[in-house]
Amino acid sequence: MKRKMTFSLTLTLSLLLSLIGFAETVQGQQRLKPVDDTGVITLGTNEMLRLTVAAGDVNGDGCAVQFRQVAYMPTSCNGGVCKHTVVSQSTSAPVTLMPGEAAVVDFNNDGFPIRAMVLSDHPNVKVNAMVVDMTTGNIICVLVGLMVPGPH
Questions:
Q1: What is the total count of domains within the chain?
Q2: How far is the CA of 50 from the CAs of 39, 86, 127, 151, in angstroms?
Q3: Residue 116 placed within a domain
Q4: How many CB atoms lie within 10 A of CB 69?
Q5: In the list 49, 63, 73, 152, which could disulfide-bond 58, CB 3.0-4.6 Å?
Q6: Which phi and psi (to 5°) does residue 133 adopt?
Q7: pLDDT tens digit sequence for 55-106
């Protein structure tokens, strides 16, 4: 009986310590949330998607931003509706932007429709998305009406 009690106490204590360590690890990480999303875009030949993010009205500590890209491949079509599946995805390392700073990332056309997202720890970052002709550098279109930031 005493042996079971000692084992139970040791097991409970080790579980409690591991949970505390996990909670500290999660607290130490930045919790970045989606602030803008282009939806799925099919780029033409020699086109790229450019995202720009400006810090906007952030406090003196700045804000963290990340860029995420997801590429899709068509799998089947039925009645004009085509289904796609994820073929690759990547997320940049966090970048800290101070007031008056901006970050830019270009997503090249690899032949697959893409979706780009901006994640941040601050809801008031300013995001622009545009399709750029890679041969001339001309802006083909500017995407407006991206995801409206919700409660952060």
A1: 2
A2: 14, 20, 10, 26
A3: yes
A4: 20
A5: 63
A6: -75, 120
A7: 877 677 788 999 999 999 999 999 999 999 999 999 999 999 988 899 999 9
Tokens, residue 61: 């500590």
Same domain, residue pair 64 and 1? no
Residue 18 domain boundaries: 1-30
- Residue 68: is it exposed, middle or buried by C-beta count within 10 angstroms (0-12/13-18/19+)? middle
Identify whether 151 is part of a domain: no
DSSP annotation of 80: T
Handedness of CA 30, 151, 91, 105 (dihedral sign): negative
Residues 70, 12 share a domain: no
Place of tokens 């970048």: 95
Classify residue 89: in a domain, yes or no.
Answer: yes
**Dihedral angle at the C-alpha atoms of 128, 121, 149, 68, nearest 10 degrees?**
50
Q: Radius of gyration (Cα) for the chain, nearest Å?
A: 22
152 inside domain: no
The reported pTM is 0.71
Whether residues 81 and 19 fall in one domain:
no
Token digits for 88? Answer: 């690759």
